[in-house]
Amino acid sequence: MFGIGMPELIIILVIMVLIVGPGKLPQIGSSLGGAIRGFKKAVDGEPAAIESERLKKTEGICEQHHL
Question: Which of 4, 6, 20, 32 could form a disulfide with 24 if both were Cys (CB 3.0 to 4.6 A apart)?
Answer without folding.
Answer: 20
